[in-house]
C-alpha cells in the first residue's frame, strides 16, 4: 500500500470512529441544505430528545432511525411532502374501510368498531368486516406511504394487528379479484384514475 493509500485509509478509519453511525454526516447535510434541525426532526418524526441522546452517544441509533432521517432529508431536498399527520391517516383509513365495506357487503359499524383484538372466525359478518379492515390498512399504508407503526398509532390499534393485516393482504394480492378491488378502492379514496 502506498503512503497516500495508507493516509486515506487512516482518515476513513478516524472519520468512521468519530461518526460511526453517520449522524454527523446527516447533520452536516442538513446544515448544507439550510434545513433547521426542528424541520428535519419533524419530517423524520423523531423527537428532539432522541436526537440529543443519539448525538451525545447515550443511545445507539436503530437502523430505521437513520433511514427515517435520511429519507426526511431527501424529501426536504426534493420538496416532496412529508408523511401525513395522524388525523389525515385515520381519515383516509376510515374512507377506505367505508368503500371496502360497500364493495364487500360488510357492515361498516362492525369494521370501524374497536374490537380490542377479539376474533370471531365463526361469525360471517365479523369476518367480512375484518377483511375490509385488513384491506384498508394495507391500502392506507401503500397509498400514503406511511409506516405500519405510524398507521397503527393513527388508527389507535396495535402494531401487531396492522402488520398482520399487511402480511395477509400481501399474500392475497395474487388473487386478481383482490388486486382489482384494491385498485378500485385506491381510485375511489384518492380520487385518482386507476
Automatic annotation (TrEMBL):
It comes from the Bacteria. GO terms for molecular function: sequence-specific DNA binding. SUPFAM superfamilies: lambda repressor-like DNA-binding domains. InterPro entries: Lambda_DNA-bd_dom_sf, Trp_repressor/repl_initiator. This is Uncharacterized protein. It comes from Starkeya nomas.
